[in-house]
Design a protein that fits this description.
12 strands, globular, disordered N terminus, alpha+beta
Length: 308
Amino acid sequence: MLAPGCGGGAVLKSLHNVLNFCFPAAAKKKEKKIEATSIQNMDKDLFTSPTAEFNLKISSWNVAGLRAWLKKDGLKFVDYEEPDIFCLQETKCSNDQLPEEMSRLPGYHPYWLCMPGGYAGVAIYSKIMPINVEYGIGNEEFDDVGRMITAEYEKFYLINVYVPNSGRKLVNLELRMRWEVLFQAYVQKLDALKPVIICGDMNVSHLEIDLANPKSNTRNAGFTKEERDKMSELLELGYVDTFRHLYPDTKGAYTFWTYMANARARNVGWRLDYCIVSQRFISRIVDQVFRSHCLGSDHCPITVFLNV
């Protein structure tokens, strides 16, 4: 908001009206602020857990470059949150570039997918050894950069995914639509065997409530009708967006903020990171939280508490 000024009468009122016309955001109510801090300065007490019983904690974070995230003490998030399963997206780090501290994370079994020269990359760290792990979606166009890992556990499949971004001026929207068709078929195949948990960066804000400025973003990547319709199609196949199931009317709940215009501090963001589960598994979800106070990326981590 504009700071209140000094000065008199009609001139000030006229100026105020001009500013409100030229800069509509100035007329809006004050936005919710985000008190974010670097992880090294963080208090572990901020990592609260639900009072209801849970026995599994899954965290997911688009780290926007693993090596940069490490330099910002990203691993302290693991120490503080202590997830049973930790899903990372956009690692931008092939196996031969993997830092030593990430190749041997104590207490975790690591699973990586990022091809040489890849700009995407995903990883799963799991305290519980999966029954089986599959890499990719079975299509070279997408698997050449590394977008998905599937881990099979006794009672569910876990998909860690980094969905393609449609890009500036939607140059990759057609490619994104091809991905969506493949992804829906893949998830349905798994769901026929046991329930599915999908965690990761879905690169879409599904509803208007899921981003700060919906009206000005209808033809921008992440909020096009095409992308939103594909999310709706996925959910209609028998899956549930756990956050909106638990908090249908909560506003200002975002997981991504551009680095420009002090967007994070003003909480001008997008909800791009999700946990989606098979309909029959929704009763297992205890809570979902956004650790929006965690710096280290242009995304924040999300954590899901389950009782399985």
